């Protein structure tokens, strides 16, 4: 008998109670949909150490269809039925996270007690048979409709008795037969279930001893095949795979395997990204107190596969793997996005609406052309309960709990995806240097076509001989169209940057004019200042206005295509010092030394445009130097006359990690970047500004000081 507590301060003890409808209500709220409900029940079979699970839809029950889930797992004893299965929200799985069978070990996938709630969601009644090894077989019946119609929990019972007749199990197992199904399982929903079951077990997991068979309506267990993924999903065109360690360092390898080639036989490219690089790319650091030196989310493994999904791409996949072309996109969509597996079993996403839980499609808007959409990638992330205890899913199994550890986990994954996108963008570019716009539009000229066709006509050739010429011209036009479209994507982004820069320059100059006029009024009326503090404050304010004006000058080259250069030059070394001063905060924070020559070189370049060139070069060097050992972070400038004294060459050397071999030819191309969160336009802008002054920018590899060495030539002022 339960004794209620008594109080001496006049309070009355009122016990908490639950209405029987709690099963139906929680089942509807916590289990997102019927497919998720079935997956939770299959996970229960996995937790019971089953090697085989059969899911069968039948029509031979008295009141219509039923759903049956049968496994050959450990089954349950009467004690487990009474004290675990019938105890709602039992801590049994949380307290016993490991199951063992014949020296094999599995960590359980279900800890929230959703199995019973899933059954209540799916149907009105449950007939269960279960048997543990060496124990009798038990029958359990639950009428969820009767329970929900009750008035208190005293009538909420599961009917249990020893199985009548022979046991249906060789040694052990469980059969769940759900009757009075609440939903109609049509062909579309069964197909959806099949696709999601294929995602249930991660390729990281050592679970080759767990098989799932779906017996569709009209099939038998003998004809049903194992749930497997299409072969082409195992042979992606692009793949990045690796690990994140305790320090947050991403160590992985990227493979590009054109369709039909075995990626395992190709030489993968190593990729390394430090937590410091990821940290610098975090847009909203105020959301959580991220630590610069290391994350707390714990180590994990990953593999992300990607495909191009244009009409020609899907045709190539279909022909290579003897797969229906119309089903290629559908197969990728069935597995799309990045799935998280804890100890080998799917954590999320469970429903289609949660596939983009990492927000990849939203960030894709920021860089159309190179970003990957959720429907192009199939990703697997492997975490563990032991090493990632703070990465937890919510009760509805559709999201991760919002914690700092989860936010770090997400930022690291975004950095991995971005690395994949950058490598993929490199491989999609045509070999050789980027064409100039004159060359691109030259391909659109019909002059050559006209002369070739005219020559054939004059020679009396038949019309059929013009076909190869027309085909070649058509191919040339298509190639030019693709290249112009590709270039337009990036230059349209540059145009957007220019619009923002125009607003910024306008606002800065409007305010500095007003503030400058006010400061002049103060100086004229109250100067010279006798009070030292007032004088210092005035000078700081005046310096701040100058700094803002220099910032406006920096953005002026990007602010408008109609920007008109001022009719004056600049002293190169002075502008280097000014730009160093503008960036002194980041340089000082990262312990970077700048060595500027004492010479004085006057160049015929607008100061604002020269600053844009210098700032891009300094920023680029500073970023990569921040990834180098602190004791050797240095930037050195050198200036050398050339072209018989008409021009000068500026060199910018650093002691950073240098360029990768495959970046040397592409470093100035729009959109090419190795920086997490970068857009790949800085060096493009700088090189185009140099080109406008009749010069060119190039890179020396390896660099003079062991890192990168960039150079540009500029006209000397006469």
Widest β-sheet, arrangement of strands: 7-6-5-8-2-1-9
The whole-angstrom Rg is: 34 Å
Low-confidence stretches: 364-368, 430-438, 560-567
Categorize the overall geometry.
elongated
Q: If helices are DSSP runs of H or I spanning 4 or more residues, what is the number of helices?
A: 20
Summarize the amount of helix as a percent range. Answer: 25-40%
Percentage of residues in DSSP E strands? 15-25%
The structural domain count equals: 4
Determine the mean pLDDT: 77
Largest sheet: 7 strands, mixed
Distance between the termini: 105 Å
Overall number of strands = 23
Class inferred from helices and paired strands: alpha+beta
Please describe the topology of this protein.
Layout: H1 22-30, H2 34-47, E1 52-61, E2 64-71, H3 78-85, H4 92-95, E3 98-101, E4 104-107, H5 114-122, E5 123-131, E6 137-143, H6 144-149, E7 159-162, E8 173-181, H7 187-198, E9 211-215, E10 238-244, E11 250-256, E12 269-273, H8 275-281, E13 300-306, H9 311-321, H10 325-335, E14 337-342, E15 345-348, H11 360-364, E16 377-383, H12 404-428, H13 437-442, H14 447-458, H15 467-526, H16 532-559, E17 570-571, H17 572-582, H18 584-589, E18 593-595, E19 602-603, H19 607-625, E20 634-642, E21 647-654, H20 682-692, E22 697-700, E23 709-715
Parallel strand pairs: 1-9, 14-16, 18-20
Antiparallel strand pairs: 1-2, 2-8, 3-4, 5-6, 5-8, 6-7, 10-11, 10-13, 11-12, 13-16, 14-15, 17-19, 20-21, 21-23, 22-23
Helix pairs in contact: 1-5, 2-5, 9-10, 15-16, 16-19, 17-19, 19-20
